[in-house]
Amino acid sequence: MSRLxxxxxxxxxxxxxxxxxxxxxxxxxxxxxxxxxxxxxxxNLNGEEVSIxxxxxxxxxxxxxxxxxxxxxxxxxxxxxxxxxxxELQGVGYRAQLQGKKLVLQLGFSHPVEFTPxxxxxxxxxxxxxxxxxxxxxxxxxxxxxxxxxxxPPEPYKGKGVRYVGEYVKRKESKK
Length: 176
Hints:
With 176 residues, the protein is of the alpha+beta class. It contains two helices and 13 strands; from the N terminus they run ββββββαββββββαβ. It starts with 8 loop residues before the first strand and ends in a 12-residue tail after the last strand. The chain is 19% helix and 37% strand. It is elongated, with a radius of gyration of 20 Å. A four-stranded antiparallel sheet has the order 11-12-7-13, with helices on one face. The protein has a three-stranded antiparallel sheet with strand order 1-6-5. The protein has a three-stranded antiparallel sheet with strand order 2-3-4, with helices on one face.
């Protein structure tokens, strides 16, 4: 059994945590996030630390204690330093560019693929074959990166497509 929740979370400098009966609000220099409190979990603010404990002995309560700890840690890290996912395009003629807030991708189709990011998500293209997705909410950053990757996932024969930086794509041998 994990003993991770026995340790309290230190609040980074510049981050303000507000706890109510319904939700937990974390505010920092990069933005603000809110999370609903889970049943069977007690969250207390002790000066510069947040402690999380299980109320009751149910399996669901124990599971949600660790989940709340991870969510709260990610929220505090996101509002102090933004989360970031990097994608790369591999393939002849594959490129990305920003037109306003819209991301336009050339992925080998007969038409350009347009992607409009949700609010609170920033997309940058430092080079035509690199995309950087950043934001405060870790889950939303990961979901947006996965949505962009799903427009043309890497194929196993030539490795063409949109992939995460450093992602390994298992290659197959072609038919002989």
